[in-house]
Specification:
107 residues; alpha+beta; 2 domains; three-stranded antiparallel β-sheet; 40% helix; 24% strand
């Protein structure tokens, strides 16, 4: 263990260094533990945000109309003995639907 104080990282702001210089060893250890956990939290949040953005782009079906949200799912409804696909999604308390096409396009 060196008798010299450690050299702070070059990108650490001076006001942070000055503030830390006033702290007791016990408080510095608390700050270090908190900073490590907070850094992990920030990294996790950034990864989640990045994953959500990429999923929205990747998972949006090519035939999804522009006015239908990407969270919509395809459901099948039977009307007069014919089956049809509908885009369906929740909008607040309401369930919205938009016609997609017949289940069996050969009919």
């Amino acid at each position: 263990m060196s008798y010299e104080p450690p050299t702070p990282p070059a990108d650490l702001p001076t006001d942070v260094i000055d503030t830390l210089n006033d702290y007791s060893p016990e408080l510095l250890r608390h700050v270090a533990q908190y900073a490590e956990k907070f850094a992990e939290y920030r990294e996790r949040e950034a990864r989640l945000a990045e994953n959500n953005e990429s999923k929205e782009v990747e998972e949006r079906p090519a035939d999804l109309p522009g006015d239908v949200p990407s969270k919509a799912t395809i459901t099948v409804k039977e009307i007069n003995d014919n089956r049809y696909y509908y885009w369906q999604w929740r909008d607040g308390e309401k369930v919205r639907s938009r016609y997609k096409g017949p289940v069996n396009a050969d009919k």
